C-alpha cells in the first residue's frame, strides 16, 4: 500500500515537473494554441483536421474563427464510415467545414482501417485498434494539398493513433517548402506500432524550416535538439513550427540538463 501511494505521488510530481498534462484540449493548451493561430491570421485561413473523429476540434476552429470575424475553411479527414457519419452530423450546420473520407498516410493506395465502434476515438490502420475492419482509401498530404491548391495552410492537426509520423512523412515536400505555419501531432505508445519515436521527427525536420515544440497549458515550449527524456511515450501534443511564424516566436526555449531535468529559458 505504501509503495502504491509513493508511486502515485511520485508520478504526479514527475509529470508536473515535465509539464505533462491530461489529454483534454481545454486543459492541455490545444484550444489555446488554436485560438492563437487563428487570432494571428489576417486573411482567410485554411486549417486541416486529420483524424477528425466526431469533429470537436473542427467545431472549435469554426467557433474561434467566427469570434475573430475570420473566414476559415476547415478540411476534416475521417475515413471510417460510421465515425464519419457522426462527424457529418456534428458539423451539418457549419458550412466552413468540409468532410473528406480519405485516410492520410505516407503513400497512396488502400488499406484496412480497424476500430472497436463508430466514434471510439482509437481507430487506426493497425489491428490493435479493434476487430472491425473497413477498407479505406489512402492519400498523402503532399498530393492532396497540391490537388486542392489550398496553400498556405495555417495549421494542421494530426491525431491518428500512432500513425502521425506516416502523415508527416507524406507531407515532406509541403513542409520542405514551408507551406504550413503549424503542425500539431499526437504522440504516445502507439508510435511503437510503426517503430517510430520523436527522435525520428528531429531527423525528419533537419532539412526543413521548422523547429520542434510541445503544447503546454501555459503556451508552447521549443527544443532545438532531441534528448532521450523526450521519448518516454507519455501521451501529449507536439508541434512543428515554421521558424518565421508568429507561434514559433512565442515559443519558450526548453532543454534537459545534465541531470535530465527539464529546464526553461
SSE order and pairing:
Blueprint: H1 2-18, H2 30-39, E1 45-50, H3 56-67, E2 72-77, H4 81-90, E3 97-100, E4 103-104, E5 109-115, E6 132-139, H5 141-148, E7 153-158, H6 164-169, H7 172-176, E8 180-187, H8 198-204, E9 210-216, E10 219-223, E11 236-242, H9 246-250, E12 252-256, E13 262-264
Parallel strand pairs: 1-2, 1-7, 2-3, 4-6, 7-8, 10-12
Antiparallel strand pairs: 5-6, 8-11, 9-10, 9-11, 12-13
Structure report:
The structure is a single chain. By secondary structure, this protein is an alpha/beta fold. The protein has a domain at 21-75 and 141-264: Rossmann fold (3-Layer(aba) Sandwich), CATH 3.40.50. The chain contains nine helices and 13 strands. The protein has helices spanning 2-18, 30-39, 56-67, 81-90, 141-148, 164-169, 172-176, 198-204, 246-250, and strands at residues 45-50, 72-77, 97-100, 103-104, 109-115, 132-139, 153-158, 180-187, 210-216, 219-223, 236-242, 252-256, 262-264. Strands 3-2-1-7-8-11-9-10-12-13 form a ten-stranded mixed beta sheet, with helices on both faces. A three-stranded mixed beta sheet has the order 4-6-5. Helix 2 (30-39) packs parallel to helix 3. The longest helix is centred in the first third of the chain and has 17 residues, at 2-18. The mean pLDDT is 94.
